[in-house]
């Protein structure tokens, strides 16, 4: 028993330690976007399905002795492969630098290949541990329930997730993490060997007793097809909610391990609670809690100025209640241990289907992150189906009209916050009110009387038909709502790097009409449409901003010879190309942009934004992550020698972490000429980046200062920090009067590629 417990616990711990480790390792290679983690999650879910299918097949098709032989052979092959890779790479599981992507195309495919080569086989072995070793345990320990071991494996997973951002990541470099993980994997392999030895011993010495038990198990009725479909559906909804919540949170702040592991830890916690003992999940507690969590989350969704703490708490509460309901109902439907491996396989398939929907289907189906809203609806729909299918549920005990009316109100009321007119109230409420009323009517018709004939006949194929019908109604209403919102956009698109929308604002006023580009909820550029005003720099780049002051007061602009007045400018992040408005004849501006959709919007010859077309400077756009592109430039002996380098790339509401480490800044400084200036755009709602950049300035011995721009017509308040090796630019009369010292009192540790901490800089 102890050997099984330790091995299963260790396997689960390693399984969930390697997920953030590998995602953290490759995050800088793909622009620091949260989609990297979501894509990694999909890969791990798919491998988990393969591992569970393998466990199910060998546990049901092979004799115990052959199971042990086959599995040990695969484990030994995995250990040998890891040893071979250790001789080639820095560690057995972290790919070498030659695996970095050369361009931003096909990011999902490239991430899958990277993970398959680096961790595919070890992760497959770890994914088989839970179901296969539990099946072995059931054979070798007759009468003992293997489901407690499943709860133990989830405890190991949870500990791995909690310790990674708080203990492992701050204490160890990525290389050290990978080496320690590999050594622990070798110890885990020994544990698998001991478990295999015990099952072989049972196979030789007690095969007759096992045969008697198996013959008795044959008389146990297996789960029906509808039950298996319900297993998959419940697991799918929980998985969609997990990944949608991760996207929702990371889009607001940044893609960092803590914001990855928090939703996943909540997801696993619900597994632990539900599978430890069935009594922990009580419908009388979690169904009202779900209604309250839905109401709270929708209120926060309708409050654009909610603090990040409030958002994290509200979305985490919603995720926890939905996962508790889905996994609690799963436990209530779990089969006899004879069907244990097939049960886990169905749950894994559901998890993978949820991942496929969020990573692959949703970006092509939606132009925004609508899967979060859809997950809320489908979770409520699944709850209705489960309750109607169970003749002992509270739905069949009393009329559900009042309860469902309250639920409909919880869904509709948040949309009405801040509404100024009845027409606007109807417009907002209609997309949510229709499915709510449909749910009320359906449940009332079915369960109006506890002992009605229709209610007794409800379980079966009718459940599936109603589930499909309900999903179609809800999906149709949501898509109508999405298309209605899209109609207000000139352009709406979504890809791996996020969502983009172009709006026409104040179109009835020719002098004030302008176009706006939004990336998620963040404005990335605005431009007047009038010919006499469209060259005017706007938003965060006005004449009084940090970059505006540099471009207007750079000493080269005052050179006597016209050809000496030109500037070489690099800009990390394109937006709508507003910086190009400062371009003068002879200037060269080189934009680095990883998102092809942004480039298409800003550089389209017939597009809405004309900054690039109107600029008098020579413009070049380099596709791909700026840091990787600059690394290749320097490696090829082609430093750009910029006079000004602008760091203006955003993932969510802040600069990606991998662009604010000392390794990144060192690359940027090598691209600057000796008198060059690095201008960093730090405007955001949630993070105080001043102490991070102050530590960087002290590390490299740089001059530093901050510039605040006040708002005005189409000019937004903004904050910039400028760094330089000397004061040849920062000391100019037109500049120094606006320059203020970095005044944050926070004390932080220097950020590196192996260490960063957002907790210390939360506003």
Task: Provide tags for this entry.
763 residues; Growth Hormone, Chain: A; Rossmann fold; 7-stranded mixed sheet; 4-stranded antiparallel sheet; 25 helices
Structure, described:
By secondary structure, the chain is an alpha/beta fold. It has two domains: about 1-485, Growth Hormone, Chain: A, CATH 1.20.1250; about 540-760, Vaccinia Virus protein VP39 (Rossmann fold). Helix content is about 60%, strand content about 10%. The chain has 25 helices and eleven strands. The chain has helices spanning about 1-25, 35-60, 65-90, 105-140, 145-170, 175-205, 205-215, 225-250, 255-275, 285-300, 310-330, 340-365, 370-390, 395, 400-410, 420-445, 455, 460-485, 545-555, 595-605, 610-615, 625-635, 660-670, 690-700, 735, and strands at about 490-495, 500-505, 515-520, 520-530, 570, 590-595, 620-625, 640-645, 670-680, 705-710, 720-725. The strands form two sheets. Strands 7-6-5-8-9-11-10 form a seven-stranded mixed beta sheet, sandwiched between helices. Strands 1-2-3-4 form a four-stranded antiparallel beta sheet, with no helix packed on it. A hairpin with an 8-residue loop joins strand 10 and strand 11. The two termini are about 50 Å apart. The model is unreliable at about 205-215, about 440-455, about 455-465 and about 480-485 (pLDDT under 50).
């Amino acid at each position: 028993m102890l050997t099984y417990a330790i091995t299963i616990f260790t396997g689960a711990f390693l399984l969930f330690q390697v997920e953030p480790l590998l995602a953290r390792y490759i995050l800088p290679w793909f622009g620091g976007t949260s989609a990297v983690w979501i894509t990694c999650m999909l890969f791990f879910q798919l491998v988990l399905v393969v591992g569970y299918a393998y466990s199910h097949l060998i546990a049901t098709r092979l004799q115990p002795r052959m199971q042990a032989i086959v599995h040990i052979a695969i484990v030994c092959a995995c250990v040998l492969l890891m040893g071979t890779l250790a001789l080639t790479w820095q560690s057995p599981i972290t790919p070498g630098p030659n695996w970095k992507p050369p361009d931003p195309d096909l990011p999902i495919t490239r991430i899958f290949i990277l993970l398959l080569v680096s961790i595919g086989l070890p992760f497959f072995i770890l994914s088989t541990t839970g179901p296969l070793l539990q099946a072995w345990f059931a054979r070798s320990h007759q009468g003992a329930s293997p489901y407690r071991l499943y709860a133990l494996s989830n405890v190991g997973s949870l500990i791995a997730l909690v310790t990674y951002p708080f203990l492992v990541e701050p204490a160890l470099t990525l290389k050290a993490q990978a080496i320690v993980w590999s050594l622990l994997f070798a110890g885990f392999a020994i544990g698998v060997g001991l478990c295999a030895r015990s099952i072989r011993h049972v196979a030789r010495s007690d095969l007759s007793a096992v045969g008697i038990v198996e013959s008795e198990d044959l008389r146990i009725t297996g789960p029906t097809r509808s039950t298996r479909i319900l297993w998959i559906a419940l697991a799918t909804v929980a998985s969609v909610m997990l990944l949608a919540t991760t996207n929702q949170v990371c889009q607001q702040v940044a893609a960092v391990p803590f914001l990855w592991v928090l939703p996943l830890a909540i997801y696993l916690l619900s597994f632990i609670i539900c599978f430890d003992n069935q009594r922990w999940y009580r419908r009388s507690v979690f169904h009202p809690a779900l209604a309250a969590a839905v109401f709270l989350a929708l209120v926060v969704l309708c409050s654009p100025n909610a603090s990040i703490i409030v958002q994290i708490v509200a979305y985490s509460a919603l995720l926890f209640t939905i996962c508790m309901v889905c996994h609690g109902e799963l436990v209530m439907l779990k089969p006899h241990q004879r069907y244990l491996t097939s049960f886990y396989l169905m749950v894994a398939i559901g998890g993978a289907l949820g991942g496929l929907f969020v990573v692959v289907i949703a970006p092509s189906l939606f132009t925004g992150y609508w899967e979060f809203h859809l997950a809320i609806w489908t979770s409520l729909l699944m709850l209705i189906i489960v309750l109607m299918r169970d003749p002992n549920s509270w739905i069949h005990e009393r009329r559900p009209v009042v309860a469902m009316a309250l639920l409909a109100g919880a869904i509709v009321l948040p949309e009405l916050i801040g509404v100024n007119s009845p027409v606007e109230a109807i417009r907002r409420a209609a997309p949510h009110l229709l499915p709510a009323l449909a749910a009320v009517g359906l449940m009332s018709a079915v369960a109006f009387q506890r002992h009605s004939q229709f209610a007794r006949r409800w379980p079966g194929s009718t459940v599936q038909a109603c589930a499909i019908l309900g999903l179609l109604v809800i999906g149709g209403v949501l898509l109508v709502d999405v298309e209605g919102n899209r109609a207000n956009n000139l352009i709406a698109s979504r890809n791996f790097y996020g969502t983009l929308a172009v709006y026409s604002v104040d179109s009835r006023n020719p002098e004030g009409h302008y176009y706006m580009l939004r990336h998620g909820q963040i404005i990335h550029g605005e431009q007047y449409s009038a010919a006499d005003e469209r060259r005017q720099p706007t938003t965060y780049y006005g004449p009084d901003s940090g970059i505006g002051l540099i471009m207007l007061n750079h000493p080269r602009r005052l050179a006597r010879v016209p050809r000496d007045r030109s500037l070489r400018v690099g800009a990390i992040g394109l937006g709508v190309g507003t910086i190009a408005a400062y371009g003068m004849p002879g200037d060269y501006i080189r934009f680095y942009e990883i998102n092809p959709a942004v480039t298409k919007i800003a550089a389209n010859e017939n597009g809405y934004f004309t900054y690039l077309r109107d600029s008098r400077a020579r413009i070049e756009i380099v596709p791909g992550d700026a840091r990787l592109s600059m690394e290749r430039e320097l490696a090829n002996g082609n430093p750009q020698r910029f006079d000004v380098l602008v760091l203006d790339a955003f993932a969510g509401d802040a600069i990606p972490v991998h662009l604010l480490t000392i390794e990144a800044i060192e690359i940027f400084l090598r691209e600057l000429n000796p008198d060059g200036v690095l201008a960093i755009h730090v405007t955001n709602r949630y993070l105080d980046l001043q102490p991070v950049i102050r530590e960087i300035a002290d590390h490299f011995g740089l001059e530093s200062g901050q510039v605040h721009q006040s708002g005005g017509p189409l000019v937004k308040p903004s904050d910039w920090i400028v760094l330089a090796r000397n004061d040849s630019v920062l000391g100019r009369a037109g500049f120094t009067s606006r320059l203020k010292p970095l005044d944050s009192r926070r004390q932080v540790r220097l950020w590196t590629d192996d260490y960063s901490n957002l907790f210390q800089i939360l506003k």
